[in-house]
Amino acid sequence: MRFTQGALGMLAQRYKGILKKCHLLNTLGAVVVSAFLMGGASMAFAAAPIIISDSHQVADSITEEYTTIDVNSGGSVSIARNGKVVGTDVTVNSGGTLTSGKNLHFGNFSGAEPNTGLLANTLTIDGGVVTGTHLGFGNGGVVAVNGGGRLTLDTMNDNTNSAWGGNGKLTINGGILDIANLSIAHDKLVEADTANSLILTNNGQLIVRDALAITDGSFTNTLGGAIKAGKLVMDGQSYTHNTSNSLNIIGMAGGGAFFTGTNLTVSQGDVFLGSDATPSGTHTTTADVSVDGGLLQVGHGNWQAGDLTQTGGQVKVSGNGVLAVGKLDQSDGLLTVGGTSNTGKLTVDGSFANTTYNAGTAGVAVTGTGVLGVKYSELVNAAGDDFLYTATQKAINVAEGGTLLLNGYSGSDMTVAEFKTLSDKLLSTGSTGTVQGINVDTSGASLQDVASAHLAVPDAVVDGSAGITSGAATVGGVTGATVISGGASLTLTGQGAAAEVLATDGVTLDASTLTLGSNAGSAGSGTLYGDIDASSSTGTSTINVVNGNYTVAGEIKGAHTTNSTNINVTNSGRLTAQSLELGSNDTINVGNASNSGTLIATDISMNGGRIDFDPPFAAAGDTSNASMGGLAFTSNAVDALMTVGQNSMVSLGSTDAEWLRTEVQRFQSDGKGLWGQDITAALALRTPQTLDAAGGINVDGTWVTGGSAATANTAHFADKSLLVVDAAGVGSGVALSGEAGGTSTLIVDSGAKLHIVGGQDGETLNVTGGFGASTKDAASWTGSNLTTSTALLSATGGTFDTANGAYSVSLKANAVASSFPMLSSSMGALVDRMVIQTGVNPNSPNAGVRFISRAMSDNYIGTTDRNKAAATVEGAAQMAAVGAVQGSTLSAATAASGAVLNRTSMALPRTDMSQAVAVRQDTDGSLSLDSGLSAGDGLKNGLGIWIMPLYQSNSVWGMKAENFKTGYNSNLGGIAMGADYTINDMFRFGAAFNVGAGYAKSNGDFNSTDNRFNFWGVSLYGGWVYNNFGLSADVGYTGNYSKVEQDMPASMQMSDLKADVTSHAWNTGLKAEYKFNAGALDIIPHVGVRYLRLVTDGYDVKSGGTVFEVDESMQSIWTFPVGVSFAKAFETESGWQIKPQLDLGVIPAAGDVKARSKARIPGVDSQAEMKMQVLDYATFDGGLGFELGKGDFTLGLNYNLQASEHRTGHGVFGSLRYEF
């Protein structure tokens, strides 16, 4: 019996699970290894065919050899990057896949056989999918991609003959080759079956994601398939398109050159620039473009080219595409700018020549909301009353909504009559658009005068009270009640009008058109006061809203007769309407096949009219181009036939359209589904809604402009639709109910998704009900298609009632610790209690509930960053400690005690925070230094006053705060001053006052927190000296006021947290010293004990309300400083005495070195207690300084260093003292 390596590999793969269960896998492995050892090199392995109909994986370092390999439907072959499969002929049939982590090689490689990937003689893709990184050919290698098949690569052999191999051949025979980059010689890209070539035939498609380079000569495309590329590189040669199949150049991300060559010519077929979603950046070429047949069309994005010559065929600039060319020379053919429902813009920077306009066949036409920009000096004569060249320049047809924009006009203002003379020459008979770009004096002119001249003066305000009955006008605004009739067209831009007032007294439409905004300029805005009334229209009336934000402060009234009113909100237009009253024949289009729009409206009554939402998708995951709706129907009764189509998001019961966009973005950022791929249309129910019998809802991301209206009395949720229910807004009601008679139908398709925002433990959320006979796929709105916005709640779908469409979801609280393990147990218990008592509501009026809900919800932070969510909550609840309130109070209190002890210490005046020094004259007339005490001789009787500047900086890090680490950097400065009196050369008593301010900024795991604080205090102190022994005592009070502010992550969408915190400390201590005289050097060991009672008053953490209520906390801290000072005095001949000093010590601490924060959420009957370390248990204390004195006057300067495990402090202190 002969075994193949592949057969052994297959055996292990197919039966691995069974062998493991039977504990025989190791046994089989041992048998196989033994067979190899016994057979040695003489053991024979023969290749055999294999048919794969299930999953087959080839791991790294594994080689499998076969003859023929057939991958059938349901079969998949996955070759690891360092795995290898060898065969003769490989076929991947429809439903099968083959993926190589590295290369695909076909043919004979003459001994230099590749070591990894797939190696065979031929590959045939008959409807299947094959993916690899690189495709290489050896002698005789053949690859065929037949209809329905797809081959996806990053690279393949380049354009040289030798690299393709002796007779290598790749045929795209109705299938698709998708490759990142491709470089190929012009004679190797062919249609006919040719060896050593890439053959594109039978309507196959070549997709080059980045650059397609055709080298070694000019190329005339007669291929039998389509080409789609990011850019086309012709190596300095020309490209001619002469095939019925298309070329689509989609542009590169960020823009840049889209065509590198001498000339781009279209003779037959279609050449598209930007036919997909809008490419970013500007796409340029210096090459000239010629069209003598076929179609050249710019669909999306910004494009620049050399000169445009047209001798036939068609040129279209539509969608939201923009094309700029050097000059236009048209002798035949049709050039169209704009489209029926879209925008396009063509700018000609040089000379302009065109042929006579003939509808649909020849000349230049501007349609839809298109804009044709031409230099005034290249089109108009010096007199300003005709074309510059009447022989080669012919009248242009500008349809309603279109604009002929004359750039660069610098002459004096024309009169309206003079302008009319010119526009009559520039525009062909039947034009209903406008001409813009010339300065025209409209004073005294009526709106009809402006319309008759087809004049666009977008910054002029004109009296419209006489109305218009013909023509087209574009103005900034109108005054007086304005009537548009007789098919006339009026555009209001809001420019130049006071406070951007579009109309002062409303507009009445009668079989005419009103446009708010203009595509000829930048985005605008404005408000139309009064109504737009088309209720008595004798024909179809149209309202367009484009390129900006426009508000109708009154009501929009549609036709209630057999006539219709059409409202189009496109080209990034946004319409906000106070009221909509339309009829069954009326339609609102929000977005279209080219671009998006937004509709915000209240008090909507559609009476069976249509509302359709549809723009094209941008990139997967990109929601920026979605059409949006924020709609509030009268009595929450949806009486519109409303379709939420592709790339559309609509909220019902709220005008906050952006709320849903935010929810979708967070839905996908949490990995629940990608917009444009896993979810394609979204509807939010913010309050309970009822479907009117005349209305219908269709949420279907496959619906596009031109599709059928939603079915009346039916709610349909298609595959990849997303229904978002606001639990707080819906409350105990039903999110979506059928009409009162129970005749409505609910249809929920497979793949429909349901997402719950907020909610409360134990709540049953009624999603639908009150319908008639209804259907729901078993997998929709449940399981993986049912999600919540927070890990604090899980949702379980109930039983769908097919009789009435009733469907509810049960919410259950999840222990917060299971999703946020970094949250302290005490805070976790508080959050759990909140979920039970108040529920999760990211928009709750209770600021605490709102804060916790957002931090714990995936729509804001939640499980997208579990540690950040926990840190946000814990840091807010311990805001005072995180902001160094306790630390700054402790520092200020220590500064005060240190200042007064300098007046009673035997050592050279110095503390960790401050110092004071003194000089006195002895009985023999000599000077000596003391710090309020003589150098062993007692105290100087009498009054002494002193003043001391204070400065210190602290760096604190790694302090434990439950499961997190935190710290801060702080600086404080201030001044201390005091007076004391000495009697009997032994006893000194005094009082002092200190005041100062500082700033601290946190670091570590919590959100950045700032603290700007002020402190003040009073102290009483006393000292006693006997020979070389000294004893000091003090008691003091320090108050501190801190304004603390904590940054919030942008995703929380709320203002920063703020708290005003007051704190104080009672501070008392005792210090003993003994001085040893060692010649000129004094050695003074010292020991002490100090008690500090630190109280942080209760405070509220606020952000649009109270987030946390934090109780008062108290800390009792004991310290036991011990150390030794070294000092030496020098005296100058002039009587000045200088005394340097060094002090070394350590300060152990005990007691409450951790600050406790007890926090409550308003309305929740529980609290969380957290601890944060504010002081280390042992601190090194060192200082170096000197004093300079003469007579009763003394100056001093000292540097101090304190260092511990988590803190380093630096201080620089000066002193000034005078004794009487």
From TrEMBL:
Q: Name one Pfam family in it.
A: Autotransporter
- Protein name, per record: Uncharacterized conserved protein, contains a C-terminal beta-barrel porin domain
Q: Where is the Autotransporter domain?
A: 938-1220
What is the species of this protein? Answer: Desulfovibrio desulfuricans
